[in-house]
Amino acid sequence: MHTLVFLSTRQVLQCQPAACQALPLLPRELFPLLFKVAFMDKKTLVLRELVHTWPFPLLSFQQLLQECAHCSRALLQERLSTESMQAVILGLTARIHTQETEAGTQPLCST
Known about the structure:
This protein is mainly α. The protein has one domain. Helix content is 63%, strand content 0%. Helix 2 (16-22) runs parallel beside helix 4 and helix 3 runs antiparallel to helix 4.
């Protein structure tokens, strides 16, 4: 049985464009749960934006998924998807690019 916060988070993420626009307005404490729900439900647009705008100094993918108090590990293993993994990678790439641009440094990677 899921908590009210989990179910509310799932509802917020139903409309991905609106959820992406709302991210700057949401408390940063919700970001870990938003990440878990977006990953599980394959909300790739939201997932990419969450990773890109992650408000904490560390984004531990492994810790986020292992410490999921609102879902079972079996469910997570069932729901691992290529789309969700690609969204995380794209979000990280955008985050690195933004940080490099803000710092005025040379890109770490070239394309």
